[in-house]
Amino acid sequence: MTSSRRPARDRIAGAALALVAAAQCWALEPTEVLSGLARVERSDASFEETRHIAALTAPVVRRGTLKYVRPADLEMVVDTPVREVIRVAGPSLVIERRGQVREIRLTEMPAIAGWVESVRSTLAGDLSALSRYFTVRASGDAARWQLELIPLSAELASFVTRVTIAGTGAQITRIEVAEASGDRSVMNVFPTVRKP
Amino acid sequence: MTRRYGALFALAAVVVAGGYYALRHVTLDSDYSAFLPGGTTEAQRTLIRELREGLGSRVVLIALDGAAPSSLAQASRGLVQALRKTEDFRYVSNGEAGLGERELTLLTANRYALSDRLDASDPFSRTHLRAALEDRVESLSGSAGIIEKRFLASDPTAETLRVLAHVAPRKAPQRIDGVWFDAQGSRALIVAQTRALGSDLEGQAAAMAALERAFTASRTEASATMEYSSPGAMAVRSRHLVAGDARTLSIASMAGVLAILAWVYRSPMVVALCVLPAVCGLLGGVLIVDAAFGSLHAIALAFGATLLGEAVDYPSYLLTQVSEGAPAQVAAVRIRHTIALAVLTTACGAFALLFSGFPGLAQLGTLTVAGVLIAGAGTLWVLPHVVPAGWRPRPPPRWTWLAQSAVRARHLTWRWAIVVFATAGALALAWRHPWWNDDLAAMNPLPASAKADDARLRAALGAPDVRYVLAVAGTSREDALQRVEALRLPLERAVASQALGGFDLVSDVVPSERTQARRRESLPAAERLRADLELAATGLPFRRGVFEPFIEDVARARIAPPVTPETYNGSALGLKLESLLREEGGRFQVIVPLAEVRDVGALARSVPHDARLVDLRGEITAMMAAYRERGLAYSAIGLALMYVVLAVGLRSFGGAVKVLLPIVLAAVAAAAMLIAFWEPLTVFHYVALLLTVGIGVNYALLMASPVARRDRAALWRTIAVVSGTALTTFGVLAFAHAPVLHAIGLTVCVGVIASLVFAGLVVQPAAESDA
């Protein structure tokens, strides 16, 4: 099975990138982070998301799994508290929840498209796609990096004011979304070893 | 001699003055619906009015193409801004910001008047509130929560979503960069509505010019192109097309006719004399129609101009009979009876059009009757006195002898048999083809490609032609709206049972006052609502006081003025209301568009009796068929009138039959040939066939006249000249782009040839003593 060799190769690629980056002393460029991610063919992870909502007395905690397959397929399965499957394939977003299926065309909903692309384009390592929605800044070093995404359009900014994505090597570890309403959510991502 | 020319100059001066007056003062109208019948049922009359001046006739569909989507989206925004600044458009939209920020604000603000969930008993009871709050907690845990959170505080019962589910268009075009695009994502789409009515062609033309200017100004890339379509734009284009066709083709046919006349008459003076009666006839006809109808339709004028093709023949009947032994005045005495009958029969044929029910055809009939009478009078009473003394036409060439000797070869009975068999043969060929084209689109003078472009734009915008609608009438707006509200339940059942795909009720946007009052009364007072909310939220993780905006909005809704159509003025919803809710003569009519009707029978059974199910396409087809039948009846009357005129004029019932029958058979054969080889017949073919009968009867009359016995060669020269000019005029017309002109040209050409052959075969000259 060729696929079982991939994570190892990805880890090697990530380590090589970290070495190269460590050798350089100047500030981290977003391309350095993203070019590492761009070599990942697919990734699997579980997540725990904590939503801090002002209207609620307690945060909402969601758990589930994330799957990304190059170039443009993203699947998020929420297991608790309510099962929900979100699939992004190309320009379409499908949400399945309590037996109801809703399809959204991303071209028609710039706000949702921005939110989706913040994750998908980062996983794809596609800086030009990210730059269509956000100004991108990187900090840290190649081993432990952080991307800061600030929305470009007013419409997107009316929902989301900043997305912060942190990672190590070619792996995302944390996605933090600050909303215009003052609410925020933090998603911790844990890579899983995929069954062959 | 001098007096004679003096009279001629006076006449020429009158013609010039009349022509000048006509050019300056006659209003040319080109709204093709003038060629639509008035309609016999209420549904048909509504339909016709809708087609002529309805809001639909003012909607312009615009597509931008030829550049990258992002560039087109930018151009779309620029164009919309530019058009909103002009006076010519009252509404412009490219789908920016979903249903429209304005529409969304209006619907949200009025949600407690609009939501039908409030029709449940005690919609804000503790139980209902508890269920709603549990739903909110759950949806906040979902991925859509980030959006739904926006209305959590002011609308925890989600009435806005409920209202939007009814009001949002089912099939909207996709959006790229926030503006409408077609399904392929290659063309940006815009919808606009002109301030001018669809029938106001000057206003439409001005709006189209403003649109072109705005596009040039807002174009982002040189390669970008704009396409647009609207009934108004189509009418402007069709006027342009018909006018262009009429101009080029009339010059071409005039040149052809003049060439024939010049060759036969060998004198510019005589050619001018030959054309003069027809010109006088046309001019007189135009002025009379303008005086009687207030305007002249472009198609009637174009058609009327072809009258020249027939009227120019009258002088030829006279002039080709001039010979050594018979100067013009003698020839006039011999032929005047024939010419008079020819004029009267054509006038009788056209007379039937006056009662056709199409204002356009009535104009055409008037123009023809007046035109031929004037041209005939000029030929009989003026022309013989002004033909130069000693002038002779070119002697008949040898082939005219051959033609008539070939005809003489067979026995008369055999020749009748040939005529009857030829007609039967043509009918047999046509038998399996569709005979009538009752499609309204066939009436549109635009070529099929322009109509196809329009259909493509419509489909891209998700505005497919609605075929079925429900029409609901009421004595007041309130009465009509209450009746429409009663439709929701049966229509929802029809959707559930698959009989229907969807429907659009104006009462979702403007409920009746009664319903609004009931909903207002069901809203609890602020104190009660606050207390109930607190109890309902027990155990749920909502922060205290989160729902204060909701309590405020409900309190405001309790004293808000009712929603009326005026609430939506200036928004897309206002536009929709205007087109679906109309007041006509004290009655209020509501149209309910139906989508994807799959079972008409079940649908008709399920709706209440006060809602009329209208099949728009069926109504139009029925209307056209009814018109056609009426047209047939009037042509029968026209034929009967012709027969009476002929019987009196020829002083023989049998003689009249012998003249009329071969021509009627020729018209039938021509119609059958058209059906078999070209196209099903429309009302325009029909009128052309009547014209054909008029022309054919002239030929038959000439062949039956005593002069035909006296000089066969002169007879055939006359026939050659008059049929040559007719075929030139109408043959040229057959090349027109406008379907109407093409149909007329083709029909008359086929009809003239059939008439010539049939009449030539069976019509016998009368004895000399009859003259």
What does this structure look like?
The complex is a heterodimer of chains A (196) and B (771). By secondary structure, chain A is of the alpha+beta class. Chain A has helices at residues 6-23, 30-37, 110-124, 127-133, 154-157, and strands at 42-52, 60-69, 73-80, 84-89, 92-97, 100-105, 134-140, 145-151, 160-168, 171-179, 184-191. Chain A has an eleven-stranded antiparallel β-sheet. The model of chain A is unreliable at 1-5 and 22-26 (pLDDT under 50). Chain B is built from 31 helices and 13 strands. In chain B, strands 9, 10, 11, 12 and 13 form a five-stranded antiparallel β-sheet that branches. Chain B has a four-stranded antiparallel β-sheet with strand order 3-6-2-7, with helices on both faces. In chain B, strands 1-8 form a two-stranded parallel sheet. Chain B starts with a helix and ends in a 9-residue tail after the last helix. Chain A binds chain B through residues 51, 53-58, 60, 62, 76, 78, 81-82, 84, 86, 95, 97, 102, 105, 107-108, 110-112, 115, 155, 159, 179, 181, 183, and chain B through 137-138, 140-147, 149-150, 152-153, 174-178, 181, 185, 541-543, 546.
